[in-house]
Write a structure and sequence with these properties.
This is Beta-ketoacyl-[acyl-carrier-protein] synthase III. The chain is α/β, with parallel strands linked by helices. The chain contains eleven helices and 13 strands. Helix content is about 30%, strand content about 20%. Strand 12 and strand 13 form a beta hairpin. The structure holds acetyl coenzyme *A.
């Protein structure tokens, strides 16, 4: 049987920090409220495009795997916030990397995008259609937010993470998965006017409506991720105690704690970095995975469990058996172009636009 071993990993976090205290200067909120309800202390604001974040994460993953971009057969960019819909964001990554041999597509499953992408990429490798696939989760969510809505503006941030999977005979990579969607609740996390449903000339205030029912999402997230993790463990014949590290979607610390409790797992077995970055949607899982590796928390041949949920409401879980190597083959020295502005400066015009817009909220 062919497996799809994870041989490279990389992340890209834009440098501009937007802390809870920064946010409390532009809206009626506080570090105390945000941190106690969500676990978030700060998030990053990107000064470059979503595909630029994705490309740097990808370059770092390629170096880690010891590969050239020309060796890639496929690029899957999991994102809900591509710079352009036509053409797709993955083609910008292909162009920037020079990955001329790779088939490319974007995959939108919102925050579950990376777990979906890893599943699709693994299937492509297992059928023999491709040998090496780059899977990226990248988002530039700060471009979508309504900065006058404190219930959502405080939750999200920008960033990217990437992995490379390669065909292998050794049992490794994604060994069990369960994907699904709670479509009947698709309205509870919904940006109805970001797409062709939007009346082009009817609303020109530049805002996107952000329908968000936090408590309902919370309940359904816990249920969806709980069912999916139970299913993958059963599929692989693995008990929760055998899981060495849980790498969950980082939407809310309380959701992560509830998931860990359901699995009877101590929090020491859970990778949590939501405090620094907030919810970066499809990017949270690959960023958390990279940081777990950087911190030496992933051991050779260990079992990792990831679970996520997102708009749709999509949900999914992935059981990964790590391979033999937990260190990069090489490092990539590339950096983003320097950013001259602070986080608050980067969002200033959007904040002014949101505050001025004559729209009931
Ligand atoms: N600062 C201060 N007060 C706030 C803020 C804020 N940023 N946001 C809301 N409040 C107020 C509300 O107005 C409300 O005030 P009221 O009682 O006077 O009416 C009060 O705080 C409580 O609001 P709730 O919405 O009930 O707060 P809750 O405890 O449910 O926490 C939260 C909100 C954090 C969003 C929570 O519902 C949640 O985590 N939901 C899960 C969904 C999630 O995390 N989604 C992330 C994105 S989706 C995804 O990843 C796919």
């Amino acid at each position: 049987m062919t497996f799809a071993n994870i041989t490279g990993w990389g992340k890209c976090l834009p440098p501009a920090v937007l802390s809870n205290d920064h946010l409390s200067t532009i809206m009626d909120t506080s570090d105390e409220w945000i941190h106690s309800r969500t676990g978030i202390k700060a998030r990053r604001v990107s000064h470059v495009s979503c595909s630029a974040l994705a490309t740097l994460a990808a370059r770092r993953a390629l170096a880690c795997a010891g590969l050239e971009a020309s060796q890639l057969d496929g690029i899957i960019l999991a994102t809900a916030t591509p710079g352009t819909l036509v053409p797709n964001g993955a083609s910008a990554v292909q162009q920037a990397l020079g990955a001329h041999k790779a088939a490319v597509f974007d995959l939108n499953a919102a925050c579950t995008g990376f777990v979906y992408g890893l599943s699709v990429g693994t299937a492509l490798v297992q059928t023999g259609m491709m040998k090496r696939v780059l899977i990226i989760g990248a988002e530039r969510l700060t471009k979508l937010l309504d900065w006058a809505k404190r219930d959502t503006a405080v939750l999200f941030g920008d960033g990217a993470g990437a992995v490379i999977i390669e065909a292998s005979e050794q049992e490794s990579g994604l060994i069990a998965n369960r994907l699904g969607c709670d479509g009947e609740a698709r309205e509870i996390l919904h940006i109805p006017d970001f797409g062709t449903d939007r009346e082009r000339f009817a609303e020109i205030d530049g805002l996107f409506t952000f329908n968000f029912e936090g408590q309902e999402i919370f309940k359904r997230a816990v249920r969806g991720m709980g069912e999916a993790t139970g299913a993958v463990l059963a599929q692989a014949g693995i008990t929760p105690e055998q899981i060495d590290l849980i790498v969950p979607h980082q939407a809310n610390l309380r959701i992560i704690e509830t998931l860990a409790k359901r699995m009877d797992a101590p929090m020491e077995k859970v990778m949590v970095n939501i405090a620094q970055y907030g919810n970066t949607s499809a990017a949270t899982v690959p960023i958390a995975l990279c940081e777990a590796l950087e911190q030496g928390r992933v051991k050779p041949n260990s079992y990792l469990l990831s679970a996520a949920f997102g708009a749709g409401l999509t949900w999914g879980a992935a059981l990964i058996k790590w391979g033999d190597r937990v260190t990069p083959l090489a490092l990539c020295d590339d950096e983003l172009p320097p950013c001259q502005q602070t986080g608050l400066e980067l969002i200033a015009s959007a904040v002014a636009g949101c505050q001025q817009a004559d729209r009931p909220r």
